[in-house]
């Protein structure tokens, strides 16, 4: 199975944020202990899967009682590496880039957007919430001075390859790519593409599947 950070399976890494959200809610409600069965029921998983996922964080449960909520929260945050907020820059301060730069919730997940860059002079020296927008020509100087490793790419698709190459030349090690373009970058660079259209395609396929089943079962009822 494909493994990611610290040798933990990628599907587990993808599930950990869901556990975290749930556990943070439990903590706010004053809940001190939680069982794998409760977590499994809430998230539609099997308890054995939940136990396996949690074991990757190094936390052990107590028989018949479960896990200490605050310990589990801390362990998940540590496992995900979110206890060390990572600075990132946004490149492309348009509709999407502005929304991402203004979103303060990323900090809860250890991502701090510290600056944005754009080629449009109308955007320079403006602010997206607490995030300043600078000319793209200043990006190297900024990265060198602030030791940033991650770039959030929100430029038009036809600019994505060239801009990402520039960012890699400036020393960025990871690109979170929102542009609909497969980037060709050196192997040492981590590239993660996020595409709402892909999520929507999955959603609509699931809806179609459900509707077909419904139509089929109403046909069966008619007989
Ligand atoms: N992944 C997703 O789910 C998703 C959702 C929406 C949009 N997008 C993509 O995100 C990108 C941005 O979309 P938008 O709606 O914000 O577009 P937009 O036109 O509002 O913003 C693009 C911004 O990039 C700037 N720009 C252009 N070339 C640049 C360069 N070389 N360097 C720096 N800045 C540059 C422009 O001046 C502009 O401010 C597009 O590629 C779009 O397809 C992806």
From TrEMBL:
Name-wise, this protein is Redox-sensing transcriptional repressor Rex
So what family is this one in? Belongs to the transcriptional regulatory Rex family.
Q: Which domain of life is it from?
A: Bacteria
Compartment(s) where it occurs, according to its Swiss-Prot or TrEMBL record: Cytoplasm
Q: What is its main location?
A: cytoplasm
Subunit structure, interactors included: Homodimer.
Q: Name one GO cellular component term.
A: cytoplasm
Gene3D superfamilies listed in its UniProt record? NAD(P)-binding Rossmann-like Domain, Winged helix-like DNA-binding domain superfamily/Winged helix DNA-binding domain
Q: Where does NAD(+) bind?
A: 92-97
Protein's organism: Sphaerochaeta halotolerans
Residue spans binding DNA: 18-57
């Amino acid at each position: 199975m494909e493994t990611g950070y610290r040798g933990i399976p990628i599907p587990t890494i993808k599930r950990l944020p869901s556990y975290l959200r749930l556990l943070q809610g439990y903590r706010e409600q004053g809940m001190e202990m939680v069982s794998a069965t409760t977590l499994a029921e809430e998230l539609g998983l099997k308890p054995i899967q939940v136990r396996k996922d949690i074991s990757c964080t190094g936390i052990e449960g107590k028989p018949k009682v479960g896990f200490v909520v605050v310990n589990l929260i801390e362990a998940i945050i540590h496992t995900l590496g979110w206890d060390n907020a990572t600075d990132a820059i946004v490149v492309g301060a348009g509709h999407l880039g502005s929304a991402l730069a203004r979103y303060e919730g990323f900090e809860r997940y250890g991502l701090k957007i510290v600056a944005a860059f754009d080629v449009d002079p109308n955007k320079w020296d403006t602010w997206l919430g607490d995030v300043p927008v600078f000319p793209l020509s200043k990006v190297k100087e900024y990265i060198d001075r602030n030791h940033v490793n991650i770039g959030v790419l929100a430029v038009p698709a036809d600019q994505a390859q060239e801009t990402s190459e520039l960012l890699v030349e400036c020393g960025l090690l990871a690109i979170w790519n929102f542009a609909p373009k497969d980037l060709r970058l050196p192997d040492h660079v981590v590239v993660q593409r996020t595409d709402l259209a892909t999520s929507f395609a999955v959603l609509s396929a699931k809806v179609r599947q459900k509707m077909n089943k419904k139509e089929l079962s109403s046909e069966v009822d008619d007989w």
